[in-house]
């Protein structure tokens, strides 16, 4: 049991690190955040210094990870309902998995040939678990790696999630079906999360005064007026997040980004397992080494399937499309629009 708990602890830390310095910087393709997120983990002194001398100074110099004690800023730690709301990213999911043939030799960094498209409904629950087991881990990884995610936009919600068969804790199916898109709106309202404009005001961001402030898409504006009329104050936060114009280099909205910015630091500095207990005594020497030497999801996949990654994973990050050319980050610093 102790071994299982330790394994979960180490795995959780690896996931937290990948989320901080690998996944987030692919979602926010901006040089500023590549430096900023690595600074969150390693500090301004950087990884080489930290690897040599350990954690030195405060969270700014030495990074949030490894601080002497957690910092809650006088508020009990929690993941807020607002954080849950902006993480409703199901629009990223496709309606089918494009299964690839990984037994062929790659040609000029082209993606492996498509075998068939498997509906996502077939990959849900116990039947889906069995189906993925039949496909195999490597074929699944390569297929997912060569298929781009969808965009976080309105009218882009996966069809299979609109009629989802819900599962019991043991994986068996429940008799009722779920429209997850409608449920997500319902949950925000049920939990009294602020509507879009008030949500932005709470973050010191400028609210919209008309639908054209939110988007230039005339079809989206027409649809918004059909649902909400001309009252922009009624706009649900999730709908607004999906409709909002994106900053160059961002896969998420500016509103979502502000919550990301706050919580990216908070979830590290408030957790004892990344601060006072981030040591060999808690993780073991091998466990801590495992966390410290993992820099990306690509490292994890390559550790288990080196031949597969050498053959197919050509991108700098496993979160990019694996055969895509390098995506140059946006070098323009980001600003937050603060009302006068």
TrEMBL record:
The keyword Membrane does not apply. One of its GO terms (molecular function) is heme binding. GO terms for biological process: defense response; fatty acid metabolic process; response to oxidative stress. It comes from the Eukaryota. Residues 1-16 form the signal peptide. The keyword Signal applies. InterPro entries: Haem_peroxidase_animal, Haem_peroxidase_sf, Haem_peroxidase_sf_animal, Oxylipin_biosynth_metab. Keywords: Dioxygenase, Iron, Metal-binding, Oxidoreductase, Plant defense, Signal. This is Alpha-dioxygenase 1, variant 3. The lineage of its organism: Eukaryota, Viridiplantae, Streptophyta, Embryophyta, Tracheophyta.
């Amino acid at each position: 049991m102790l071994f299982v708990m330790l394994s979960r602890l180490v795995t959780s830390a690896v996931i937290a690190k990948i989320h901080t310095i690998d996944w987030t910087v692919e979602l926010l393709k901006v040089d500023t955040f590549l430096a900023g997120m690595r600074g969150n983990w390693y500090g301004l002194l950087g990884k080489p210094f930290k690897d040599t001398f350990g954690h030195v100074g405060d969270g700014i110099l030495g990074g949030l990870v490894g601080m002497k004690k957690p910092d809650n800023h006088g508020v009990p730690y929690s993941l807020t309902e607002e954080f849950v709301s902006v993480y409703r990213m199901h629009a990223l999911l496709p309606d089918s998995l494009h299964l690839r043939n990984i037994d062929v030799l790659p040609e000029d960094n082209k993606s492996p040939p498509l075998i068939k498209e498997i509906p996502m409904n077939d990959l849900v629950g116990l039947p889906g678990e069995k189906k993925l087991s039949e496909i195999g881990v490597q074929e699944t990884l390569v297929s997912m790696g060569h298929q781009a995610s969808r965009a976080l936009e309105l009218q882009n919600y996966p069809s299979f999630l609109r009629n989802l068969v819900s599962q019991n804790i043991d994986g068996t199916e429940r008799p009722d079906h779920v429209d997850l898109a409608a449920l997500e709106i319902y949950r925000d309202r049920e939990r009294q999360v602020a509507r879009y404009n008030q949500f932005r005001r709470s973050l010191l961001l400028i609210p919209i005064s008309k639908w054209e402030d939110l988007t230039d898409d005339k079809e989206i504006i027409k649809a918004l007026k059909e649902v909400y009329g001309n009252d922009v104050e009624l706009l649900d936060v999730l709908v607004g997040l999906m409709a909002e114009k994106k900053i160059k280099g961002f896969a998420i909205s500016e509103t979502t980004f502000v919550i990301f910015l706050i919580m990216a630091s908070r979830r590290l500095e408030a957790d004892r397992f990344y601060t006072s207990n981030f040591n060999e005594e808690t993780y073991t020497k091998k466990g801590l080494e495992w966390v410290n030497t993992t820099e990306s999801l690509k490292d994890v996949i390559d550790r288990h399937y080196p031949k597969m990654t050498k053959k197919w994973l050509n991108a700098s990050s496993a979160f990019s499309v694996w055969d895509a050319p390098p995506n140059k980050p946006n070098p323009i610093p980001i600003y937050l629009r603060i009302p006068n």
